[in-house]
Amino acid sequence: MGTYILENEEALKKVLENMLRKGMVEGVMVQTAGESGVFTSIITDPDFISKTAPLAPLFSNNNAVFLQNNGTRNIAVVVKPCEARAINELKKLNQINTDKLVVICADCQGTINPRDGLITEPLTEAKKKELEKDSIPIRKACTVCEHFTPPEVDISIMAIGTTGGYILATDREELLDGLELKAGEIPSGRNAEVEKIRKENLEKKEKMVEELDKKLGSPDTLVEFFKDCIRCDNCRDMCPICYCKQCYFETPLGDLRTDEMLHQAATKGILRIPPDILFYQLTRNIHVAAGCVECGACEEVCPRDIPLLDVWKSITGNVQGLFEYVSGMKRDEPLPLVGFKESELEEVK
Fold first, then answer.
1. Strand order in the sheet with 75-79
2. CA triple 231-277-320, angle to 5 deg
3. Is 234 helix (H, G, I), strand (E, B) or coil?
4. I need a labelling partner for 268 at 20 to 30 A (CA). Which of 109, 160, 206, 228 fits?
5. So what's the pLDDT on residue 211?
């Protein structure tokens, strides 16, 4: 693996511009700064790369959802670790052709929701203090994230542990053809710093899950927890792992019309509308638990402010922990539910 020094974010922009100018990719999907704020865009003209903000610490949705069924044309994508994990997971599910992607991922030191504020520069400890002073919160998902460094991708950008600038690491050095980058080394203190942050976030996550588990001890408490759900489908639509071409809840059986609801109501004389709230949420849980990347996009689009991330942290931790699997960290690791090992789950009676 080659490791190189990037002195600043502008150096990363030159890498993206070089890929376009040399025809290595036909487009680059990256955050871009415009008059109305920062938004994700696909750029085909190298001259527009100067307007990008590839390391802006903003998260409005998991961009892996836009890459499903990505076709046959090569593009580079600059994503955060949870988005890169979703791409890897969707590759295993045959929903993304990663042969046509150059995935570039940087350490994530936290993100903010654009509704809370717009910043284009990379997040540093000094910037975090500034945000705190201005009462702009780091997204909840980031404060309890254990996997904030790049998973297996084409190009990794390391910020944690460096004293300034970044370290670019890649096995695909042909992507740097024509660039005069100085060789660098992975910082000696990086692993210790990563583990320090991971430990802090893990403690917050465990506290979150512990508090949730105390609340959810029976079906009745589950009903209470999800009672405000209005079946808007926002959580499903924003989830990168919820990929079915036709969702059960869009079929006649799952999306009841008036006549069917009247038929069900006749059994007890009354039927809550929308119906089957708990069934809907449990179906999502069963479908996604093994692949959830815990990005928190579902919770942030919930109009009723249901703390969905808390549920996913608990369920995902239990399911993936059972199989000693972390979704999306490795590109070719088999999905836990498609393989069979004679020695696994021996404690289950």
1. 2-6, 166-170, 155-158, 101-106, 75-79, 27-34, 37-43
2. 95
3. helix
4. 228
5. 92
pLDDT at 311 over 70: yes
Question: DSSP secondary-structure letter at 173?
Answer: G
Determine the Cα–Cα distance for residues 288 and 252; give it in Å rounded to an integer: 22
Contact 168, 185 (CB under 8 A): no
What are the extents of the domains in the chain?
Answer: 2-199, 204-322
**Model pLDDT for residues 272-291, shown as the tens digit of each residue:** 888 989 999 999 999 999 99
Q: Which two tokens stand for residue 263?
A: 């038929």
Higher local confidence (pLDDT), 306 or 255: 306
Give this prediction's pTM: 0.93
pLDDT, tens only, 6-53: 999 999 999 999 999 999 999 999 999 987 789 999 999 999 999 999
What is the b/e burial string over 180-194, where b = at least 16 CB atoms within 10 angstroms of the residue's CB? ebeebeebeebeeeb
Residue whose structure tokens are 């030191």: 109
Burial of 266 (C-beta count, 10 Å sphere; 0-12/13-18/19+): exposed
Region label for 283, one of left (φ > 0), alpha (ψ between -120 and 50) or beta (otherwise): alpha
